[in-house]
Amino acid sequence: MIQKILIGIISGALVGIFVTAIILPETSNFLELLVTKITATAIITGILCGIYAKLSNSKLQVFFISILIGIIIFYLKYLATGHDFDALTMGAFVGAMLGGIFAIVSKATHSYKVYTRLHQRRRKGFGNYR
Q1: pTM of the prediction?
Q2: How confident is the model at residue 17 (pLDDT cuts 50, 70, 90)?
């Protein structure tokens, strides 16, 4: 669970910085990009998506629920702060990016586990039928 939350924090920060750099191009300092409302909201979205990714086994479901989580979190931020950017579009975009990241990580770890299991069995003689 901690691993998925850490992936959510790191990917949320990177996605938040990316979105902030696109929407607010006048910010040039990295620290300013890191402490914006958009980046903080993306980190919170990443944490919640990471928790859901740990609980779910379906990569497609993680992707769609991450979009929904992003929309909800960004809309709550809009209601709380009155930030004048389009909350639903930004939430869907950030949620889709985070959902895609979690789907890719899930697929990569699953493929690696299958590969190592097959490699161990081949070393023991599995598949050598001569």
Answers
A1: 0.83
A2: confident
What gap in Å lies between CA 130 and CA 99, rounded to an integer?
46
Helix axis angle for 2-23 and 87-123, nearest 10°, is 140
**C-alpha distance from residue 116 to each of 69, 91, 110, 123, 126 (Å):** 34, 37, 10, 11, 13
Q: Which residues contact 90 (CB under 8 A, 6 or more apart)?
A: 19, 23, 38, 70, 74
Question: Both ends of the chain: CA-CA distance in Å?
Answer: 45
Given a contact cutoff of 8 angstroms between Cβ atoms, the answer to whether 36 and 24 are in contact is yes
Dihedral of the alpha carbons of 48, 15, 81, 78, in degrees to the nearest 10: -70
State what percent of residues in the chain have pLDDT above 90: 48
- Alpha-helical (H) ranges within the chain are 2-23, 30-34, 37-55, 59-81, 87-123
Pair of tokens at residue 70: 């992003």
Q: Is the dihedral of CA 60, 14, 91, 77 positive or negative?
A: positive
